[in-house]
């Protein structure tokens, strides 16, 4: 599944399309998680004026200058979606939408069809039309923002804002992957950050002190920034831009390496399922106690 670095990489790849006019929209396979709005074709004559990211969502802002008409498209890449730019109009299998920007065709490609393209406002194609509220309002802080630091995580875990509630004892890995706490720390990046921090993924969150939380937030930020710089992790079928793949996966220290030797101490890496997700760790470098 494309995570925050892959979505941020996709966002950056769309920069050459900013300011370009849409000359045509083709909907080839409308069935995704939600049906693609039929009136997406009405974007003809609009310009792409801004591309934003919130968590793992892309928000594409369009403007029709003649009528000062604004529209925003919410895109989620799901499990296997990608936005790819081509200089030809050839329709491939699993191309759901093609948007024509002059001599560049932007293909939304999604073999597993878990992605979505919806209007942010007044979307009549889903049960609840408050798309932005439904998908965006519950999200936590951005991990690369100044707001995400050891103090934020400490206050979240120990509920210093509500002393009537108990501190959070769930595994730390589950907590940092919770989108209402911090967005975009997917399995790959949570696994790598915990290894670099020397923290067992199953360790209860309320057993971590401020020093450990400072180390963890530092490594989450560092890992995500490094992944973005390297174009994300091209596991399975994620590609971006003109079809090129990222190569952060070539630097992974523990994710997907269960049974191999730890690069630090040579112990065998182990795998434990936490919150339904595979969690590879080093029993020596990341002791549970």
Automatic annotation (TrEMBL):
One Gene Ontology MF term: class I DNA-(apurinic or apyrimidinic site) endonuclease activity
Entry-linked PROSITE patterns: FPG_CAT, ZF_FPG_2
E.C. numbers: 3.2.2.23, 4.2.99.18
Catalytic activity line of the entry: Hydrolysis of DNA containing ring-opened 7-methylguanine residues, releasing 2,6-diamino-4-hydroxy-5-(N-methyl)formamidopyrimidine; 2'-deoxyribonucleotide-(2'-deoxyribose 5'-phosphate)-2'-deoxyribonucleotide-DNA = a 3'-end 2'-deoxyribonucleotide-(2,3-dehydro-2,3-deoxyribose 5'-phosphate)-DNA + a 5'-end 5'-phospho-2'-deoxyribonucleoside-DNA + H(+)
Cited InterPro entries: FPG_cat, FPG_Glyclase, FPG_N, H2TH_FPG, Ribosomal_uS13-like_H2TH, Znf_DNA_glyclase/AP_lyase
Active-site residues, Swiss-Prot/TrEMBL: 2 (schiff-base intermediate with dna), 3 (proton donor), 56 (proton donor), 277 (proton donor)
Location of the FPG-type domain: 253-287
Record key words, sorted: DNA damage, DNA repair, DNA-binding, Glycosidase, Hydrolase, Lyase, Metal-binding, Multifunctional enzyme, Zinc, Zinc-finger
One Pfam family cited in the UniProt record for this chain: Fapy_DNA_glyco
Residues forming coiled coils: none
Gene3D superfamilies cross-referenced by the UniProt entry: 1.10.8.50, MutM-like, N-terminal (3.20.190.10)
Cofactor(s) this protein requires: Zn(2+)
Record's subunit section: Monomer.
Family: Belongs to the FPG family.
Job description of the protein: Involved in base excision repair of DNA damaged by oxidation or by mutagenic agents. Acts as DNA glycosylase that recognizes and removes damaged bases. Has a preference for oxidized purines, such as 7,8-dihydro-8-oxoguanine (8-oxoG). Has AP (apurinic/apyrimidinic) lyase activity and introduces nicks in the DNA strand. Cleaves the DNA backbone by beta-delta elimination to generate a single-strand break at the site of the removed base with both 3'- and 5'-phosphates.
NCBIfam families per the UniProt record, alphabetical: fpg, PRK01103.1
Protein's recorded name: Formamidopyrimidine-DNA glycosylase
Organism this protein belongs to: Moraxella nasicaprae
Gene name of this polypeptide: mutM
